[in-house]
Amino acid sequence: MSQLDLALEAEVSAWHLSFVESGRLKPSRDMLLRLAGRLGLPLRERNGLLLSGGYAPVFADGPLDRPDMTSAMDAVRAVLRAYEPYPALAVDRRWRGPDP
């Protein structure tokens, strides 16, 4: 994606984006999140971008067995059960699957 395309997608001027890219202008938290969203960065990488920009992370990151992840894990297990008797596999970014 060109700088001009990204600027148009993020609804900022190419001048502004150029100054952010060259380090002549410090982007706001909102600008970093907007650019990350337009670039399709995963939430974990958006947190890294925010940290690099001097801001605290905004997206939760933790193990899948947390209490607030119960419904998400139940949904993953339900999808896997729906494929039975055929094989199916769900893995995270580290190629680990959910507990059976």
TrEMBL record:
Gene3D superfamilies: lambda repressor-like DNA-binding domains (1.10.260.40). This is HTH cro/C1-type domain-containing protein. One of its GO terms (molecular function) is DNA binding. It comes from Aureimonas endophytica. Residues 1-46 form the HTH cro/C1-type domain. InterPro entries: Cro/C1-type_HTH, Lambda_DNA-bd_dom_sf. It holds the Pfam family HTH_3.
